[in-house]
Amino acid sequence: MCSGNEGGKVNSLLRCGLKLSVGLVIVGCVGEGAEPVRFKSPSGRHEVAFEEIEHKKYSEAEQQRDFNFTSHTKYLISFYRAGEAHPVAQVEYRDVYGWEKDAAPTPPADLFKAILWSPNEDFAVLDEEGWASAPGAPERRAVAVNPSLSWSTAPFRLSDPVWADTLHVIGNAHNDCDYSVVEFEGTTGKMRSIMASASPIGYEIATTTGRRVLIRKALDNCRMEDAEKAFVPECFSLSLDTMQRTAAPCDAGR
User: What is the pLDDT of residues 235-254, one digit of tens each?
Assistant: First the structure.
């Protein structure tokens, strides 16, 4: 139930209830002192609420002196089964929005839109928090929202995701001297290597056709000139059904 003081009744009425925007469904209130709004998942089976619990605002001088002093907002993110009162999962998340002089916190609606959901919504993957780090695979976290899963949160460090099934996803994990293709196992919350690198030789997903993924050999960022001269292209076809790979022509996915 939404409520406000007498002077704010009109605003409260305008700001409570069911709200619709492009690609986004919001349930709840956004008035001061109200419960956080809930954003509906793509299937509508889950709702997500962002409760601000801390806001650290640093001056430009402080941020230049120590990268740990970066303006950010800390949220408690709660995942609910639609319409239920008690969350099935909760996790703290920091929206690091500093670095620029006029930077402002990311709206919770945008943080919600950045969530990657598994096909059956067994787990959700939060966007990167935004802390300073070396270039590489995104530092995201997966949150289990299916109570039958044995894990609660887990690192999810891959890009260009390709779903093998409802609980398993493969992607590129590219860091300076490590270009690998990896799999996130939603059953265990663990990452495992599909094609491990041996710097400067690495691997990357080239194309996906049906249930087969074309993986090609690539040079990582630590390559030297002699490695570039000696490089011989090589590709593999990976079955998403068996996770077995076979040699394949590099134009097979075109």
Answer: 999 999 999 999 999 986 55
Amino acid at 193: S
User: The whole model's pTM is what?
Assistant: 0.81
CB atoms near residue 126 (< 10 Å): 19
Q: Are strands 46-56 and 38-40 parallel, antiparallel or unpaired?
A: antiparallel
Residue 70 structure tokens: 């970066």
Classify residue 244 by burial, with Cβ atoms within 10 Å: 0-12, 13-18, 19+: exposed
Least Cα distance to 36 among 99, 90, 72 occurs for 90
Residues 6+ apart with CB under 8 A from 66: none
Is residue 236 within 8 A of residue 227, CB to CB? The reply is no
- Going from N- to C-terminal start, the domains of the chain cover 15-157, 158-254
CA angle (99 as vertex; 98, 103 as ends), nearest 5: 55
By three-state DSSP, how is residue 110 classified? helix
Q: What is the mean pLDDT of residues 190-200?
A: 95
149 touches 184 (CB < 8 A)? no
